[in-house]
Every structure is written in structure tokens, then in C-alpha cells.
Here is the input.
Amino acid sequence: MATAPIEPPQRLVSSVSGDPESPVRRWLDALPTLVQQRLDDWELTLERVHAPGGRSSLLALVRQADGTPAALKLPAPGRRVGHEAAALATWDGWGAVRLLRADAASGALLLERLRSGVSLRSLPEAKALLEAAGTVRRLWVEPPAEHPFETLAGRAEEDAEALGTAGGLTRAAGPLVAEAQELRRGLPAASEERFLLHGAFRQGKVLAGERAPWLAIGPSPVVGERAYDLAALVLDRFEDLVAGSGAAAAVRRRVAKLADSLEVDRDRLRDWTLYRAVDAGVREAAVGDRQRGELLLEFAAWL
Here is the structure.
């Protein structure tokens, strides 16, 4: 039982809408009660709320009734609540954090405890990329027959609106945005691969564990081709590549190296990377970070 007050981390509070009637705001206000309910129902003892934490969920470090350490995650409400639990259940600890319990009503997850302060980002770039590639490869499995996950075609369709908000970027961005829009329409239909993908893979979402050296967390699962997941890995820590000498050549080498090491078509990986870089750049500019948005578009241009 918890005796200390449960306070959501400031990062989570700051990222939530100020509208008191929004579902996410009401969820945030109810979080202390929701956490306490899970602690009581699952016989957990709260150690502390993890900070700074994420922008769309609360993570609490807890102990189970037998003293085993675990992590309690409560995600913000959304139509994909439950998809993370379904993906973790499918992987069953293979390459990813193990799901111990789940509550369908609240979306709460009880997860095995990993070393939250140690991710692949703590490693040198070459070693981090190697370990990340090995981890994401394990996640690419056949989805269950009756799965709830969206497809890449559906996800790309949702991105159409975001790509249409590129007005705040420079005129030079126009051709790249047009190419990304064309790729959005054509890429999903041009592949017959149907793997369960992490959907939001990056080095920061691979943590050190006891059961295995590195395990993935926080999936946004989607069904489609492997190049989509791998494109996010090409983009990971892109600022380091941009800051170095010979950046354009280094970007293309990264695409070739990752594609060849995981037996993914180089051209498909290049196209998905360009699409994801432009999409991310437009989104960053739309929320006010124009500098980062322009940097992502520059990265895309080198492809």
C-alpha cells in the first residue's frame, strides 16, 4: 500500500492539454486515484514515480507481494490503448520487456523491471546501432491471426494531414514534402511483408535488463514491412550525423549498412527513411521547433 502522495512528473503535466474537459486532462487529474487503485488491486508497494518519465504515460517503480521488483505503467487515454499490451503479450519477453499483468479498462500494465536509466543511447554510436539492430530483428514476428493492430497503410493515411501543414517551412521544402506525400501513397501498397513492428523504435527505447542485456519498451505496434521500423533507426541520433564531417555520405552509409545487416532492401529503406524524416520535420515545425524541422528535412535531402 502506498502512503506517500502520488505526484505526476512535471514533464507529463506540461505535455497535457490545459482544457479541463479534455479526456487526457481528466485522466491526469485522476492519476493519483488510478495508481492507488492498481496498487491495491494488484497488491503492489510503491517505491517511487519514475521521473522525468514520458509525455504520454506515468511509470511507477513498484514491488509485488513477493518482493519482486516491477514497473507499473498507466498510459494516457487514446484509441490505441491496449495495443501495447497485445504486442508485448505476442513477444512474451522475446526482445522486449515482459508483460506481467494488464488491465483492459484503464490500460494499466505491470512490467518486469528494467534499468530505466541505462538505454542504448549510453553506448558509442557504432555499438548502439549494432545492439539496436539485433534487438529490433527479434521483434519482427508474424502477427496473431486476430490482432488489433493497425496497418502501415492506415498509419500513413493518418499522416496525410500532418504533411499538409508544411506551410511554415522554407520554399525549398516543397519538393521534399511532395516526394514524401507520393511515398505515403505508394510505399504501403508496394510490399507484401506483414510483420509485427515496434512502430516507434529508437535507441532510447531499448533498456538494459537482467534477463537479457537489452530489451525494447514502449511499442506503438503496427503491421507492415520491416523497412518502416528500420527507418526510425536510420534517423536515430541524426543530430550527431548532421554535426559531423561528410554528413551526407555518412547518412547513405548508415542506410546501406543497416539494410544489408538485416537483409532489407536498400531502396525501400531509403524511401521509408525519407518519408519518416520529412513527416517528422513537418511535425516539429508545426509545434514550433522550426530549427529541428529544417534539420530533419536537410537529412532527408541527403538520401
